[in-house]
Design goal:
mainly alpha
Length: 93
């Protein structure tokens, strides 16, 4: 099946969008980058909540867990967005 000009335009637009999404995912720490944290994004941020130099205790544990789950959920959505964009690109090929 021949690819139409409009499909080529869509493909270019989707590739640019995917590049932007991937760049933001690296910036936000949702994907590993060279020199970035080696833990999950949720764990990395949750550690900052329940720490001796900030706040500690049972309530801090609860809030850290909530942040861990929330951030991890966001990371999965945004990294999944890049995968979905790639699937759309592949569908145009």
């Amino acid at each position: 099946m021949a690819v139409s000009e409009s499909d080529e335009d869509r493909k270019e637009d989707l590739e640019a969008l995917k590049e932007t999404v991937e760049s933001k995912n690296v910036y936000l720490g949702f994907v590993e980058s060279v020199g970035g944290p080696s833990t999950s994004p949720g764990d990395y941020r949750a550690r900052k909540i329940n720490a001796d130099d900030t706040w500690s205790g049972p309530l801090a544990d609860d809030k850290a867990d909530a942040v861990r789950e929330g951030v991890q959920g966001l990371a999965e959505v945004f990294t999944g967005l890049a995968d979905d964009i790639q699937a759309a690109i592949d569908g145009l090929s």
